[in-house]
What we know:
215 residues, alpha/beta, Rossmann fold, 7-stranded mixed sheet, 8 helices, 7 strands, 33% helix, 18% strand, Isochorismatase-like_dom, Nicotinamidase-related amidase
Amino acid sequence: MSDPYTTPEPAASALITIDLQNDFTLEGAPAMIAGTAAIVPAVRKSLEAFRKAGRPIIHVVRLYKADGSNVDLCRRHLIQRGAVIARPATEGAELVDALKPDDAIQLDADTLLAGRLQSIGPNEWILYKPRWSAFHDTMLKAVLDDLDVTTLAFAGCNFPNCPRASIYDASNRDYRLCVIADAMSELYERGLAELQGIGVHILTSDDVETWLRSS
């Protein structure tokens, strides 16, 4: 039996990708998260389905300034000591090419660090977040409200950190929620059970196109 409060509404949905940047994804990158490169095909399939359906997509990214001034406390010392991770205007900070609507797109660090959206295609944007959650000190909720979004589907890197924080913050804001399980790195069985316990619906990338057509 569907729940009238948590059942996703595909016709009012948006896809949120989290931290799918070269430095966190590519093999041998300085902050590579195990398993993230492997989810890229599933993320791409999900992105293509949302693009085909004309539904909004927001790629949420991290950018670490060289002086560490905008970095989480747990990583600030590392960056201040010279680690180059998701540094503005470096290739490592860029979205993985396979996930862009156009390979030529580059992050506009000045726009993003100023808290503004960067448009990269029809109904597709990049947004910088300064901490774990995509909602922390960002314009994300205002953007979603303007787009009349009620339902968020999440994909990205890596579940225990930024995706989980973002999903729980989305739940706090009464969004209907989906996680695309094969498009989320470091997602584990207990995590899946915990998500389902707060009303999150679990999809796979193979489900997304059909789900979007089901409205």
